[in-house]
Design a protein that fits this description.
single chain; alpha/beta; Rossmann fold; five-stranded parallel beta sheet; 5 strands; elongated
Length: about 160
Amino acid sequence: MSETKAPRILLVDDEEMVLTSIRAYLSLETEYEILAHTQPEDALRRLDEGPIDVVVTDYLMPRVTGLQLLAEAKKKQPEAARVLLTGHADKQSAIQAINDVGLYQYLEKPWDNAQLLLVINGAIERTRLLRGLAEKVEELDAAHGQLKEAQRRLIRAFL
């Protein structure tokens, strides 16, 4: 895991103006790599092209809803944090779906930029911790296998 690599944020909203607004704000305030899509299908393909730290998506989009996109993101990159932007009318649906897609956070439109940045920063930290934990577990699994093999060799040597 490279801590020096810029976090990658995947933004998905069918309104170009929303993407432009968030992208401009994050570009001014951070060094994050921002990947923005108006088509959820393009965003889903992007999830196959390398690690994403945070997926931020609108709730209501044509063809693929934000929840469908986040459910697919959870399958493809389970460690990536998932954030949902909702209109006030969609709030109850978003709350009900939190467990279904493992939602990290939801924000209502219109969002507060400072709050959005706090959520994204927290989400990045969570993703990095999960990835770091996964690496440590793999290292421990490998070390455990090596210890078991050494134990078998010792037993054979003394029998």
